[in-house]
């Protein structure tokens, strides 16, 4: 038994790291390198939360050898050397909530020094972090994708629509239907991203309830992990298969109805 335990590889543990933004914030983070040919995810938490909110999700990323860099955004967690978020101005295009994009900038620079290419980075945000991820993607259009968990059009004047009009890459958006306002705003953002990025570039995942980190942990993680592994939408086959009949030499077709199994499928992810 002991020999078997010795043969099992030890689970890698994320390392505590820190880096500084251009405007002097010390950003605390947890870093786990990706395995070969896998993405590295920059994780951005919701307002009033911290990097530990992603603990469950990070364990799933480790299972699939996806790397991650989970941040304490300025004013949160261990990133409070210049103040706390409760004191930030709630309005203004240059308030500290908007300046959280600089925290992402510092994270991108940190990963680049570790040899991670920009196209191998994915920004994942929940709540406030979703809007920050969208804004940061407009600064780094070369990142490999952005995943927005319950984004809204305006969070403390961090605007997501202008950013999504700029970003042309892969987009994952998730929202639950129980909060009508948030769901409609997320749906609007899905449409903006579709118009910007094009067909096959946007995934919209729905759920019954929850928001932010709770939505991620309870409902969305499997879909998000799959998207991180294969972000490009697979070819969708038509619902009705058309077969040319020998009786019609002019090219008429008889529809073949879907099977009972196909009728039972209810999609939870919309492209």
Question: What does this protein look like?
Answer:
- The chain has 271 residues and is of the alpha/beta class.
- The protein has one domain (10-270): Rossmann fold (3-Layer(aba) Sandwich), CATH 3.40.50.
- It has 8 helices and 13 strands.
- The chain has helices at 2-7, 55-63, 100-113, 128-139, 161-166, 180-197, 212-229, 260-263, and strands at residues 15-20, 26-32, 40-44, 67-71, 121-126, 145-149, 154-155, 158-159, 171-176, 202-207, 241-244, 253-256, 269-270.
- The strands form 3 sheets. A 9-stranded mixed β-sheet has the order 1-2-4-3-5-6-9-10-13, sandwiched between helices. A two-stranded antiparallel ribbon has the order 7-8.
- Strand 1 (15-20) and strand 2 form a beta hairpin.
- The longest helix has 18 residues, at 180-197.
- The protein is globular.
- Residues 1-11 and 242-271 have low confidence and may be disordered.
- Briefly note the CATH topology name: Rossmann fold
Poorly predicted tracts of residues: 1-11, 242-271
Mean pLDDT value: 87
Report the span from N to C terminus. 48 Å
**β-strand amount:** 15-25%
Oligomeric form of this entry? Answer: single chain
Number of strands: 13
Assigned CATH superfamily: Alpha/Beta hydrolase fold, catalytic domain
Give the overall shape: globular
Secondary-structure arrangement, i.e. CATH architecture: 3-Layer(aba) Sandwich
The biggest sheet amounts to: 9 strands, mixed
> Helix coverage percent of residues?
25-40%
Task: Tell me the domain tally.
Answer: 1
- Strand order in the largest sheet: 1-2-4-3-5-6-9-10-13
> What's the alpha carbon Rg, rounded to whole Å?
21 Å
Order of helical and strand elements: HEEEHEHEHEEEHEHEHEEHE
Number of helices: 8
Q: Class, according to the CATH hierarchy? A: Alpha Beta
């Amino acid at each position: 038994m002991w020999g078997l335990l010795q043969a099992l590889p030890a689970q890698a543990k994320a390392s505590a790291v820190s880096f500084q933004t251009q405007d002097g914030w010390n950003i605390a983070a947890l870093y786990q390198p990706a395995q070969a040919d896998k993405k590295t995810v920059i994780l951005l938490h919701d307002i009033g939360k911290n990097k530990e909110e992603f603990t469950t999700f990070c364990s799933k990323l480790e299972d699939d050898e996806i790397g991650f860099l989970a941040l304490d955004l300025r004013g949160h967690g261990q990133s409070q050397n210049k103040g706390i978020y409760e004191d930030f101005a709630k309005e203004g295009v240059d308030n500290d909530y908007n300046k959280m994009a600089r925290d992402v900038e510092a994270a991108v620079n940190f990963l680049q020094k570790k040899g991670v290419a920009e196209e191998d980075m994915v920004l994942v945000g929940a709540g406030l972090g979703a809007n920050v991820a969208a804004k940061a993607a407009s600064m780094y259009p070369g990142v490999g994708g952005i995943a927005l968990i319950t984004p809204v059009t305006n969070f403390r004047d961090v605007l997501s629509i202008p950013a999504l009009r700029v970003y042309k890459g892969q987009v994952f958006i998730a929202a639950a239907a129980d909060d009508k306002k948030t769901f409609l705003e997320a749906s609007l953002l899905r449409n903006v991203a579709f118009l910007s990025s094009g067909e096959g570039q946007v995934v919209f995942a729905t759920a019954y309830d929850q928001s932010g980190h709770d939505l991620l942990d309870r409902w969305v993680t499997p879909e998000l992990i799959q998207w991180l592994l294969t972000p490009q939408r697979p070819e969708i086959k038509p619902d009705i298969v058309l077969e040319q009949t020998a009786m019609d030499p002019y090219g008429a077709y008889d529809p073949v109805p879907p099977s009972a199994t196909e009728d039972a499928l209810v999609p939870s992810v919309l492209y």
